[in-house]
Amino acid sequence: MDGIVPCVSYSVKERLYRQLRKCADSELRTRYLIVVNLINRRCAADTAKALKVSRSTVYRVAERFRTEGESGLVDRREDNGSPKVDEHYLAILSKVLRSSPDAHGWRRPTWTREMLIATLASRTGVRICAGTMSRALAEIGARRGRPKPSVRCPWPEARKKARLRALRRLVRHLPADEVAVYVDEVDIHLNPKIGWDWMLTGQQKSVVTPGQNEKRYLAGAQDARSGILHWVEGERKNSSLFVRLLWHLVRQYRAARVIHVILDNYGIHKSAQTRLAVSSCKGRVRLHFLPPYCPDDNKIERTWQDLHANVTRNHRCATMEILMGEVHHYLQTRNRHLRLKAKAA
């Protein structure tokens, strides 16, 4: 081992051990461990294997210790000058990520690290490697995810905001003898929705689909105060399903003077059958329509997303009866937890 590191005295070896015990820097501690292993007559290959580093790292650390002593183990990157990825660079990176690549001259709709490196180099004059770009993206909290498809509301922005403010005001100042519910329908497919899941490297989970798809539909109403969900089930998503939900709400809220129903502009919500049913309620049911294509302002949409995440996505139910049993169990359990939470408050 004399060819790799020189022989050291007992006092030097003891000092190396003391420094190793006190060292809090993981990279510096690894370099101390390399030297200690080599001094204790372990070969370079065994040292690299034990510490999970490359042989070249072992030889490089040994060379620095042989020529500069213990001071050669210290990280020298502080002598590199100011870091390339500073706050100014990260701020420009955040701004670039909020835009589309075609706004910067790229004929591609999605960003890659290499495109970001080139774009930032032209904006800042600083060029970094792909690994550094990965660390920069992590530092600003960027992630790779699926964009959410959306449709632009055809209403003027002022009209849209005025309608949404009016609906929020309605819910916020709701009288004690009135209720408000968010209403929407959801499709339940026997062929499962495929979504992300954890799996081991080199393995891909398989979801067996029945092949012949079946559908069920839920019309749901989520109480704006309590979050409790009321629903009816049907084999068709039509006006009859929605009207059955309205009658269900009338029975559930017998003491309510008015039931305010906040919903989207789907055709079954405005049909002649629906208008007749609402008029027969003699003012107890009032429909309040959201602006077109504003699903994020319908609170029940999040409940349907949770239903898919907890029940229908990647499900393995062989029949629709089993799947709908899981759907009802999830929604009933959700309501039970909300009621218990309300009692405890």
> Could you say how many structural domains there are in total?
3
Radius of gyration: 32 Å
CATH topology of the largest domain: Nucleotidyltransferase, domain 5
What does the overall shape look like? elongated
Report on this model:
It contains twelve helices and five strands. The chain is α/β, with parallel strands linked by helices and 345 residues long. The chain folds into three domains: 10-79, no CATH class; 87-139; 157-194 and 210-344, Nucleotidyltransferase, domain 5, CATH 3.30.420. The relative contact order is 0.08. The protein has a five-stranded mixed sheet with strand order 3-2-1-4-5, with helices on both faces. Strand 4 (258-263), helix 10 (272-280) and strand 5 form a beta-alpha-beta unit.
